[in-house]
Design a protein that fits this description.
alpha/beta; Rossmann fold; 2 domains; six-stranded mixed beta sheet; 12 helices; globular
């Protein structure tokens, strides 16, 4: 009997040792495979949407630093604990020394910021670089699962994805499917108009609610568009992704008062959405709130009456 117990204990130890040796293997959104010895518990996150995902997974204690894009008024209002975290340069001025000084296990950053030189410096110091690139709604779910796996929060990630899918389905069921048209403005007139096309999460939400994105048939993802093209297609609803920088008119007010736009249906019906919390610009959990805002615009309900999700 003792020999049997000893044998079982050895087998259990071997299984546990093998499991630890295997670690956590993930494939990031650039298709790069990497293995963590254990769930990452010291993470620097460079983009706000990924910050929100970390928080939604209940893993904020693993966050030891953030990128400059996360240090905005909307993000600080949603996640006040960010105010106490070190901020590192991000984007094209990503600072490797600042990141390494925090001794992270992993850095989560957008694919556009993953530069070979930066990646080599970080990974040669034992820091995993995880790239995210959530363009579509399905990509958002992939991102949530990826971050969940890295942080050892697989169950929480699946629960969050299921919750989002259910809430979006509930909102979609209430949509009148009235065939309204949507224009998603990613860059304002003064900087040169850019719009969201097919393959974007805003287009996915648009279709979910029975609307048509006025540029979905023209291009995928994000492209510059002409003012004439927008006016000709006369959208019923306009969403602006611009943030407000404490000067000049609010982004929706600027659109509402553009010369020559007074006959656009969205302008005439006061159906221009500017979200001061910036949820429309972030591929993360709060897209459920964006869907509700869009539904309210379709139904002619004031967006500021939408209850918090």
């Amino acid at each position: 009997m003792k020999k049997l117990l000893v044998l079982l204990a050895l087998i259990l130890l071997l299984v546990c040792t093998c499991a630890l040796a295997d670690g956590i293997t993930v494939t990031d959104m650039m298709g790069r495979e990497m293995t963590f010895d254990a769930p990452a518990d010291r993470v620097v996150v460079m983009m706000p949407a990924d910050c929100e995902i970390v928080y939604a997974l209940g893993a904020k204690d693993s966050l030891i630093g953030i990128g400059t894009y996360c240090e905005t008024k909307p993000e600080m209002a949603i996640m006040p604990e960010l105010a106490g975290l070190p901020v590192v340069n991000s984007g094209y001025v990503t600072n490797v020394e600042q990141i390494l000084a925090l001794a992270p296990n992993a850095v989560i950053m957008a694919t556009m910021d993953v530069q070979p030189a930066i990646t080599e410096q970080l990974e040669s110091s034992g820091v995993k670089v995880v790239a995210t690139d959530a363009q579509s709604l399905e990509d958002v779910y992939t991102d949530i699962r990826l971050i969940g796996k890295i942080l050892g929060k697989n169950a929480e990630a699946e629960e969050l994805v299921a919750s989002m899918q259910q809430q979006l389905a509930d909102i979609a069921a209430k949509a009148p499917k009235a065939g309204k048209t949507l224009y998603v403005e990613e860059s304002p007139l003064e900087w040169g108009l850019w719009a969201a096309g097919s393959g974007t999460y805003m287009n996915d939400l648009c279709e979910l609610l029975g609307m048509t994105n006025i540029f979905a048939a023209d291009f995928a993802l994000h492209q510059p568009v002409s003012e004439e093209a927008v006016l000709e297609r006369n959208p019923d609803i306009i969403v602006t992704m611009m943030m407000y920088y404490d000067y000049g008119p609010l982004p929706d007010e600027e659109i509402m008062n553009r010369p020559g736009w007074e006959n656009v249906s969205a302008v005439q019906n006061d159906a221009v959405l500017y979200d001061e919390t910036n949820a429309v610009a972030l591929p993360g959990p709060r897209l459920v709130e964006v869907a509700q805002m869009l539904l309210d615009l379709i139904n002619g309900t004031a967006v500021d009456e939408v209850p918090a999700a």
